[in-house]
């Protein structure tokens, strides 16, 4: 699983990296080194947004996916992660697998080692470079809101995970799925009908990147600043 991650870039920088436009209010988002589930996070997606053709854009989403059929925005089940091995079969995720796939930019993420009070966070990242993590998104409409109220629509997202590679398996048995650059376009393209075959292919293609991941212990996560990812001395 991944329950905390780091995104230190501005949305302007992300837009330049991914060749996307920034959709308000994503332009108000601030970089963070301590992002928990249910936070508003920048995601990359492609869809029609008042335009005549598909547009690649950066939007803010709640980091916990809510399927359209849910009666409430908040679920009693954890939906900030989805297992890539079975997401195409799960009621909460299968519609998103088909046509609502996203990229979640990150520089790294945290996992904990130990139990109880002795749990110690580790920062997991690439030695040189950032991560484009495979995600899914969904739009949830608030049934209590007026149909003319644009705020009734809530964009939500989840991060796909797979079995951890040997380089970080001593920290956690699951990890987010990093997308290689040559799969970004296909992954985001909503005209590509996603299925388990696509998920399996993405999981296999992610392995060379995942094998490059390194980690180091950091101090307990308090506050939100760049010092959080510094190695514990």
Automatic annotation (TrEMBL):
Taxonomy, superkingdom: Bacteria
BP-aspect Gene Ontology terms: protein-DNA covalent cross-linking repair; proteolysis
Gene Ontology molecular function terms on file: lyase activity; peptidase activity; single-stranded DNA binding
EC main group = hydrolase
Gene3D superfamilies, per database record: SOS response associated peptidase-like
Kindly name one Pfam family recorded for this protein.
SRAP
Q: Which InterPro entries match?
A: SRAP, SRAP-like
Alphabetically ordered keywords of this record? Covalent protein-DNA linkage, DNA damage, DNA-binding, Hydrolase, Lyase, Protease
Protease as a keyword of this entry, yes or no, is yes
EC number(s) per UniProt? 3.4.-.-
Family membership noted in the UniProt record: Belongs to the SOS response-associated peptidase family.
Q: What is this protein called?
A: Abasic site processing protein
């Amino acid at each position: 699983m991944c329950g905390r991650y780091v995104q230190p870039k501005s949305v302007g920088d992300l837009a330049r990296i991914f060749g996307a436009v920034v959709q308000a209010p994503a332009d108000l988002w601030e970089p963070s080194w301590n992002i928990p589930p249910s936070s508003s996070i920048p995601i990359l997606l492609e869809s029609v947004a008042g335009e005549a053709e598909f547009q690649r854009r950066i939007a803010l989403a709640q980091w916990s996916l809510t399927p359209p059929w849910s009666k409430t925005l908040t679920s009693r089940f954890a939906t900030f992660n989805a297992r890539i091995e079975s997401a195409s079969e799960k009621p909460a995720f299968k519609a998103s697998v088909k046509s609502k796939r996203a990229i979640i930019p990150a520089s790294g993420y945290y996992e904990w080692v130990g139990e109880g009070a002795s749990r110690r966070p580790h920062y997991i990242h690439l030695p040189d470079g950032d991560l484009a993590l495979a995600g899914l998104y969904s739009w949830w409409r608030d049934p209590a809101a007026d149909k003319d109220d644009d705020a009734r629509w809530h964009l939500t997202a989840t991060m796909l995970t797979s079995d951890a590679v040997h380089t970080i398996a001593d920290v956690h048995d699951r990890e987010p799925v990093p997308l290689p650059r040559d799969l970004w376009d296909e992954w985001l393209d909503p005209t590509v009908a996603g299925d388990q075959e696509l998920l399996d292919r993405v999981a296999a293609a992610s392995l060379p990147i995942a094998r490059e991941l390194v980690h180091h212990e950091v101090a307990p996560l308090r506050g939100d600043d760049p010092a959080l990812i510094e190695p514990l001395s």
